[in-house]
## 1
Amino acid sequence: MSRILNRVENLLTYSAMVSTLIMMLLTTADAAGRYLFNLPILWAYEFTEDYLLVATVFLGASCAYREGGFIRVTFFVERFSPKIQGALVVLAQVVCLVISIFFIVATVYQIPKAPFTVTLDVLPSGPGYLLVLAGLAIVSLAMALDLVKKKSPFTKEESKDY
């Protein structure tokens, strides 16, 4: 299971990277077309907003979790014994997992309401919700697996390079 999850996480991470690259190129081309030729790219802003930004954030969430990239406030926890620190780390993981599951349920609730067809003036928002769902599902699965394995990226040593 862990091996399959790693492959899916890698696929999502590379997809997030490609989405960031496309977003940079599209925004640059749109700005150049808008200001140099007075000819912006149709739907560039909407495509970036509805798909590329969503893909970058949510498809990359699992990678951020694995690398310990989530925000942590450690000055309070460091004052306790290692046993209590371990319990607080588990509590933090459980809270993150519950919040993630809450977001999954909210996203699933929104998907039927979202349009999936293209009209002349609006891009469909439905595919964006599917990207959110995929990213949240994988990061939730990673959190649940880490809870079962009793390991946590929340305990990684922080870099001292300020």
## 2
Amino acid sequence: MAHEQPGQTLQATALVHEAYLRLVDVEKVQHWNSRGHFFGAAAEAMRRILVENARRRRSLKRGGAYDRRLLDERQIVLPEPGAGVLALDEALTKLAQRHPKIADLVQLRFFCGVSIREAAKLIGVSSRTADDYWAYAKAWLLREIERDAG
């Protein structure tokens, strides 16, 4: 959430609460194989919530065609609400097709906020490999997002 643009209406506490409800409020009881499995599911749930929220805010029904402004006119919110989350989601989906383990690392780091060391344990790689994955992912995602924007 710290990486989100101003105007994001979903608070971190609300995001975690919604993710928790999606993980435990199901008809069939979930059994987690490991801590990594749970964190992976939590990261995926948070990603989906943020993407759904961004899409909802961009819809015409919710005023998506208008520039959103805070009450203080000196601060202007993104012209396209949630564009960053949607662009990241598209790029992350492409990355997952090519390098699923690297995409898992990004989801854990970005959506769950875990450290490199913790993410490495959760996906089953060394800290050094996770550092390499993280450097690669940042460069790859930036290039992909810029390519789609331009």
